[in-house]
TrEMBL record:
Function statement: Catalyzes the oxidation of 5,10-methylenetetrahydrofolate to 5,10-methenyltetrahydrofolate and then the hydrolysis of 5,10-methenyltetrahydrofolate to 10-formyltetrahydrofolate.
Top-rank taxon, per record: Bacteria
NCBIfam families (UniProt xref): PRK10792.1, PRK14186.1, PRK14189.1
Domain Tetrahydrofolate dehydrogenase/cyclohydrolase catalytic span(s) in chain numbering: 6-120
Pathway named in the protein's UniProt entry: One-carbon metabolism; tetrahydrofolate interconversion
The protein's name in its UniProt record: Bifunctional protein FolD
Family the entry assigns: Belongs to the tetrahydrofolate dehydrogenase/cyclohydrolase family.
Positions that bind NADP(+): G165, R166, S167
EC code(s) of this entry: 1.5.1.5, 3.5.4.9
Taxonomic placement: Bacteria, Bacillati, Bacillota, Bacilli, Bacillales
Protein keywords: Amino-acid biosynthesis, Histidine biosynthesis, Hydrolase, Methionine biosynthesis, Multifunctional enzyme, NADP, One-carbon metabolism, Oxidoreductase, Purine biosynthesis
Record-level GO BP terms: L-histidine biosynthetic process; methionine biosynthetic process; purine nucleotide biosynthetic process; tetrahydrofolate interconversion
Catalysed reactions listed for this entry: (6R)-5,10-methenyltetrahydrofolate + H2O = (6R)-10-formyltetrahydrofolate + H(+); (6R)-5,10-methylene-5,6,7,8-tetrahydrofolate + NADP(+) = (6R)-5,10-methenyltetrahydrofolate + NADPH
Amino acid sequence: MTMNLIDGKEIARQKRSFIAEEVEKLKKEGIIPGLAVILVGNNPASKTYVTNKERTCRELGMHSVLIELDEDVSEQVLLEKVMELNADPDIHGILVQMPLPKHISEIKVIETISPDKDVDGFHPVNIGRMMTGQDAFLPCTPYGVIEMLDFINADISGKHVVVVGRSNIVGKPAGQLFLNKNATVTYCHSKSTDLMQYTRQADILVAAVGKVNLITKDHVKEGAIVIDVGMNRNNEGKLCGDVDFDNVKEVASYITPVPGGVGPMTITMLMFNTLKAAKSIRNK
Ligand code: NDP
C-alpha cells in the first residue's frame, strides 16, 4: 500500500496565510479581529497552549488579549469577566482555557460566553446549530480534521467513518461533522466491546482517545484513511498519538503524524473562527 502523509503543518500554513490576507482586508475596513483568552491558574500545559494562541494571533495580525486569573478566583468574578468581554466591541472571540479549577462550573462559564463570540464552538447554541446543519462556530479540532480531509480531496459521502472517543470537544462533534457530510458514522468508546471489529470496517478512522498505540495495524482496514487526534507522551517522554504510526502506515492510504498532524490545525481553526466572528459584525 502506498501511504501518503497528511501534512498538518503545511495545510495549517496555507490556511494561516489565507487568514492573514483576510485580516489585512478587514483592517482596511477598520476592523481588527480580536481574541481574548482567559487563563485561570498556573497549569503549565494550559499556559503553553495559551502562549501559542497569543503568538499565532499576533503572527496573523490579530489583536489578542490575555487575562490571567488566580487559581482561587471565584466563579462569579470569572463570569463577570466573561460578560465584560461579551460587551467589548474590540473583542470578537472569547476563549476560556480548560480545564478550570474544580470550584468553577465549566458549563456555566461556557454558557455565559456569547454564542456570537464562542470561537471554541462549545456553547450549546453552536452545538445545536452544528447538529441541525446551520451556520455555527465549529469546535476547532474536529473542524481541523475535516479541513485536512478536504485538502486531500477525500470523498466522505457514503463512507463509513469510525470515531474512537466521544468527548464533547472532539469525538462527538467529529462524528456529527462527518454525518453532516453524509458519512455513515460509528462511535466507539471505553465501553465498546471488541474495538477492532468496528475499526476494521472504517474507510476513515479517527482516533481521539489519549492512549499510546491503542490503534495498531490490526485495527485498520487496508487503504483506510487514519486521523490521529491523540496527544500523548510515550515512555521516553516523546509526543505521540493514539496510533502505532510506524506499523499502521503500512496499511493506511493516508495517515496524520503526531506531532505535525491535527495539532497545528486546531489553533488554525481557532484563528479562522475568530476571523469569522470579526467578519460577522459587518452584518449587524
Ligand atoms: P477525553 O479523555 O475527554 O475522551 C477520551 C475518549 O476516549 C472518551 O470518550 C473515552 O470513552 C474514550 N476511551 C478511553 N479509553 C478507550 C478505549 N480503551 N477504547 C475506546 N475508547 C476509549 O479526551 P479528549 O477527547 O479531550 O482528547 C482525546 C485525545 O485527543 C487526547 O489525547 C487529547 O490530548 C487529544 N487532543 C488533541 C487535540 C489536538 O489539537 N491534536 C485537541 C484536543 C484533544 P468514555 O466516554 O467511555 O470515557
